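Hey, I'm writing a tutorial for new members on how sequence and structure tokens pair up, and I'd like a real worked example in the thread rather than a made-up one. If someone can provide the structure for the chain below, I'll link this post from the tutorial.
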Amino acid sequence: MLCKIWPLHGVHSVSTATMLDLKGLKCPLPVLKTRKALTRLNDGDRLTVLTTDPMAEIDIPHFCRENGHALLEAERTDSGHRFVLAKGG
């Protein structure tokens, strides 16, 4: 799902937010699919990743640190995890 976030008063840039539903996939697929999705985004764009794999709690933050992406949010949900990343440059 791709949705545009439009800027407010006086802000001239437009960023893109993308949702990636990876529920049901096991390691290493959540990280591999996250990496692939980020290649299609511009620097600063946000990617929300939903997972059920318990290892994602370790793997996604590690992937962000190692590849220069910002992990903006990480939370446990009723069905797994939700991560919000910003693509780094």
